[in-house]
């Protein structure tokens, strides 16, 4: 019965229960919730003595099944943990975050906003900021910069106080997010390290490299040249040869 519940085979669940008086373990409801099988959960709740655990609501919230979260809340007593709101936030399920905030008391942790920022769910970030008190860590802004979520970056800068680290500009540069590199340079004072230019060069982001050269003082290391050589970024190699000849080992490249 556990396996049938997991895969949503309600007819088999009903057959096993009515013909053999079979009972399931808590696994059936927990896994049915994870896989979105509300009809199985309803049957097991209403016609059997099947138990469940907090994993049921946690799993349903993680996967975005608001109908199951709602049913479990109003019809079962197992509840959930902070993982429910944390994972719903991470996956951008705003309606579930709102439901849990309104109807449940378990709350969330800073991971909720941190992970929502990582994945660029601005609406979730805004809801958590205006309605919850857990806040976030510097990982929130660092992660938004890393993944190029500019609107999240702007919101955090304007509304939160946690700030970021040098990783924010370093990683934005590494991934070619020039708009974010420019924004951080103009609006924040954490700065960057030589990793910003080194990784921008390695990944072929010439516009980022040029901006850092003209506006920052950290410079680069020999790793910039080595990475550009390895990845055959000819224009980057020419740039480095012109402006940072002391970092260039031209014997490594046939591109110039």
UniProtKB/TrEMBL annotation:
Against InterPro entries, the record matches this protein to: Ankyrin_rpt (IPR002110), Ankyrin_rpt-contain_sf (IPR036770), SecEffector_AnkRepeat (IPR052050)
Q: Which domain of life is it from?
A: Eukaryota
What is the official name of this protein in its record?
Uncharacterized protein
State the species of origin.
Thraustotheca clavata
